Amino acid sequence: MAYFKHNGAKLYYEIQGTGKPLLLLAGLASDSQSWLSVVPELSRHFMLIMPDNRGCGRTECSPSSITIENMATDALALLNELQTGETLLLGHSMGGMIAMRLAALGPFRFKRLVLAATAAALPERTKSLLLDWVHYREADLPMELWFRNLFYWIFSPEFFESPDLVMENIRFAIDYPYPQHLTQFR
C-alpha cells in the first residue's frame, strides 16, 4: 500500500506477489480492490501492480483531471517509478481503454496486453447508459437500487440465481470505505 504523486494527483497503489510485473487496470467506478477475487491465484505467478485510477478509491485528484490520457500517463509514470522494465498489462472495461492508450504510449514496454470487456470507443448507447447512471445518482436514488442496476450490466445471469449473493455484494458496495464520489463518477 503506497502513494505516488504524478501530474497533480496523489495516486494510491498496491503491489502483491512476486515474479514478472503485471499491471492491473480497473474499470469505471472500480479501484484496486476490484481485483481481490483473482489476487490469490495471480500473485502466485506475478508481481501484481494495482493502482486506484483517478477519481477512484484512495487516489486524490481534481475531477477535471480525470481522463483516459491522464490515467494512462499515471500508469506509465508509476511503472517508471517502480522500474518494472518489461511489464504485462491487463485492463478491464474502462481499464482496457486506459491499457490501449498506455500500450500506444510505450509499445515496447509491454510484453502482453490483455483486454477484458472493453472497447476502443464508446457507442452512443453506452454513453447514454453512463449518463443515466449519473442522473440516477443525482436523483438520490437509493444506493441499493443504483448498485442493483449497475450489477445487471457487470455480472452474469448466473450471479442473480443467488439472491443472498446479490444482497451481500450490494451491501459490500454500499458499505465500501472508499466510495467514488458523484463528481468523480460524472
Using brief descriptors, characterize the structure shown:
about 190 residues, alpha/beta
How do the helices and strands line up, and which of them pair or pack?
Blueprint: E1 2-6, E2 9-16, E3 20-25, H1 39-42, E4 46-51, H2 68-82, E5 87-92, H3 94-105, E6 110-116, H4 124-138, H5 143-154, H6 163-175, H7 182-185
Parallel strand pairs: 3-4, 3-5, 5-6
Antiparallel strand pairs: 1-2, 2-4
Helix pairs in contact: 2-3, 5-6
Summarize the amount of helix as a percent range: 40-55%
Main β-sheet description: 6 strands, mixed
Shape: globular
Q: What is the rounded distance between the termini?
A: 27 Å
Mean pLDDT: 96
Low-pLDDT ranges: none
- The helix/strand series, from N terminus to C terminus, equals EEEHEHEHEHHHH
Number of helices: 7
Radius of gyration from the CA trace? 16 Å
Tally the beta strands.
6
Global structural class:
alpha/beta
Across the major sheet, the strand order is 1-2-4-3-5-6
Please indicate the percent range of residues in DSSP E strands (runs of 2 or more). 15-25%
Protein model, in words:
The structure is a single chain. With 186 residues, the protein is an alpha/beta fold. 40% of the residues lie in helices and 20% in strands. The chain is built from 7 helices and 6 strands, in the order βββαβαβαβαααα. A 6-stranded mixed β-sheet has the order 1-2-4-3-5-6. β3, α1 and β4 form a beta-alpha-beta unit. α2 packs across α3 (94-105) and α5 packs across α6 (163-175).
